[in-house]
Request: fold
Amino acid sequence: MLRLHTTIDSVIIEGMQRKSGYFHLAQKNTYVSTLKLGRGKDPMKLDKFVLAQNMAFLISIPPETNLAKLFSFCLATKARKNTAGTDILKITCELMENPSNLPYWTQDVMGLDLDYSSEEWKALGEMGIQDAEDFMATLSQELENLSL
Reply:
């Protein structure tokens, strides 16, 4: 699995190796892509790399999985314009740390824009959550089974 860690002056990409200013996938039997990060002719900016990485992750998720249902729910929700991205990240990290809080988390996320829309309720219903712990345990297994 690829993990991207960034700080103000460094980028560490687990699962990738750096050669001559390029990062490439270090796994066998995997499509090898090179991205030049930094300055130079036609460099791929880090934000484009993160976008490409997230797109590849989303494409690899089967649509009938709990993970896909959770992402559909997230896409249906809206935050107020003045909600900081760090606040949203904090809320999502809290779910990962306490997966049994899924029912409360969904309500918190739906309320970010101070409005509970019909799209949000529909996406929540399509998640089909009967048991929050079971839903999140299945989701964790789906994450482990992804092949990136």
